[in-house]
Specification:
The chain is α/β, with parallel strands linked by helices and about 260 residues long. It is built from 9 helices and 8 strands. Strands 1-2-4-3-5-6-7-8 form an 8-stranded mixed sheet, with helices on both faces.
Length: about 260
């Protein structure tokens, strides 16, 4: 099902968002590259109402100087979700979106049911990981199989503004210590997804989250770099849908191709 772009006025300003599908609500929080309508995300609309808010300043939207941190963005997302998504819903994050999702779940434990953290940013211990400055090296770090990209490319200007907005909100934080202290308060059943070839988010990030989020599990998607939804769309979708349906029992009867 196709996504539509809609707009809502919130207490912190205007917010644009993608919406598509019907069924159990899922909130999707985008990465630092902006919203990417990947094949797994589009397929999810067959059984779910999917909402993907665009952080102001990303994807050609007007910036919001009132948002000064990832935590601020999570507060705006919570208001959006309360008005549009529902009182309780599932959340999928991608990189920067997972960082946002963690703040959302920590500050609104009754709001988030299932939580999927794809290649979660915000926990680069020892300065490990991160994206190279060189554009070619950066692209290789993001995608093991760039030929699988099916979403519409963004202009260089949009990509540059996405990067600037992310850098402003991330504020050069390598490890979000304030969020780390809040991880034990997360009540959502949580799945942490990492790519076996990802050099952007270090494996220590997944281990840290698994250790401190009470109801959490960790899985690796084989032969995927940072953009797991692009590199391995079928495997990603299979894990998403199984976990959203069965929670902690998602690992049962998945067969050898599950990850």
């Amino acid at each position: 099902m196709a996504f539509e772009i809609k707009t809502i006025e919130l207490s912190r300003g205007k917010l644009d968002y993608h919406a598509g599908g019907t069924g159990t609500p899922v909130l999707y929080l985008h990465a630092a590259g902006g919203v990417m309508l990947t094949e797994p995300l589009k397929a999810l609309t067959r059984d779910h109402a999917v909402f993907a808010p665009i952080c102001p300043g990303f994807d050609g939207t007007k910036g919001n100087e009132g948002l000064k941190s990832v935590q601020d963005w999570a507060v705006m997302v919570a208001e959006f979700a309360e008005k549009i998504v529902g009182p309780r819903f599932d959340v999928i994050g991608s990189s920067f979106g997972s960082w946002t999702a963690l703040w959302l779940a920590a500050e609104n434990p009754r709001m988030v049911d299932h939580l999927i953290l794809g290649v979660p940013a915000g926990f680069r211990f020892g300065g490990k990981g991160g994206l190279p400055a060189d554009p070619e090296a950066r692209f290789k770090a993001l995608y093991a199989y760039p030929q699988k990209i099916t979403s519409r490319p963004k202009t260089p200007e949009v990509m540059a503004n996405n990067g600037k907005t992310y850098e402003r909100l991330a504020a050069n934080i390598q490890v979000d210590e304030a969020l780390s202290a809040r991880l034990p308060s997360i009540e959502a059943v949580t799945l942490i997804l990492l790519g076996t070839e990802d050099k952007v988010v270090p494996a220590e990030a997944g281990a840290h989250l698994k250790r401190h989020i009470p109801a959490s599990q960790r899985a690796f998607i084989f032969d995927a770099a940072h953009s797991i939804e692009v590199d391995q769309p079928e495997r990603t979708l299979r894990l998403w849908t199984a976990f959203l349906k069965r929670g902690p029992g998602y690992v049962l009867n998945q067969g050898p191709e599950a990850a």
